[in-house]
Prior knowledge:
4-stranded antiparallel β-sheet, single chain, 39 strands, Methylamine Dehydrogenase, Chain H
Amino acid sequence: MIQRFLFVTALALLTEPARVAQAQTFAPVALYATGANSSPSGIAAGDINGDGYPDLVTTYFTSNSIAVLLNQKDGTFAAPVTYVADAAGFATPLGVTLSDFNKDGYSDIVASSEVSGSVSVLLNKKDGTFAAAVTYSTEASSFPQFLTAGDVNGDGYPDIVTANFYTDDIGVLLNKKDGTFASVALYPTGKSTLPTGLALGDVNKDGYPDIVTTLLSGSAAVLLNKKDGTFGPSVAYPAGANSSLVGVAVGDVDKDGYPDIVTADNIGNADVLLNKKDGTFKAGTAYPAGPKSAPYGVVLGDMNGDGYPDIITANEDDGTASVLLNKQNGTFATALVLSTSGRAAAGQQQPYNVAVSDVNKDGKLDIVAANAGDNTVGVLLNRTATLATQPAAAGQPQATVFPNPASAAEGSTLLASNLPAEVRSLEATLLNSLGQVVAHTTLAVAQGQGRAALPTTGLPSGSYLVRIATHTDHAAPTLLPLQRLVVR
């Protein structure tokens, strides 16, 4: 059964306590050398050795390699361990992502290779090391750029999707339910469209992930899932004017319950295309990522803990990453621009892609960048103060989550007190760093108090927000102060 991502809808109508704004700050970049002429280009973060800490995987574009940097359980990383991307010939691995392809509980690696027109799958040996790469063709001369993985046909196994630049199509490789893959199925995006970026998201809310790609010709394109892992025709939507689009991310930035599209364009902007609540999209609104930025990669993540996805771009021309905070309405603040290598010579590091993950387990998302021109991976730890809410006044309703941090297995408890006599029940909703609802529970109220276990079983480690709504027989629901829960 396809995992369905549910988004906050009714809660958006509730009255929420005012929040105290926090300045977004990051520690100076920590650099990890990847070796001369390695040109790290793709980057992904995830726990590959089962110790509960996110590790890093990057692609070496010029040396036919994929590298793994294991987390030392403190947000620092061991020296890279490399694996051959394609034993049959010289590959140029670019995009990379992690997914459990053979359902053994461990994250596997898949990377795209431009020159060889293929993807390489490296299965995890259940200890954070990997078997030799197995390659699958994405079509002759296809030049695959970005790729992603997700269960597109609802059989419970992640499939692979690629953006094939030179052949103007999208490639879908269905999982055979054993971590091997069927021959590629191709879906055209239009002549000379040059698809580059790639993401999956259920944009029309039918329970099946759709394909979103960027076209170098200046549009974002959507291919709707036919509910069987095959896809309808490509429909293009204008994004940035006079731009060439590269990276793309999908997430509900305006909290209306429908995933929106965010693209990176090479004239210096992140472009936001809002969903019309039917799987079609408004024209893009451009938000500058920096004066000389030329964004290449883009991701979404809640960087300041307010429950709204923010935009993070990798800016290849000036050697930076930019953070654009969500104004809690799907529009974005002025970019905070951060060096990804600390070098004075702007642009020399050429960060092509970024990822976000809580690498030091402090409950805040950090930024990792693949610096192709600098032969390094850069890690910027998030030092932003924990999101604050206005404290409840004496005698006013209050909520507490304990223990906090909590383990996913043992869970946490929500305790609400000082509730008005008319409150009959509480509704608690857990949101992840993308603002997606991952768990939900309802608890009864008696004598002004409510207590219930929060459903954390199976949740990945990370930082979550807990929204708590009160319900009465007559009045409209209201929200108690927002709570943060760290799961380890």
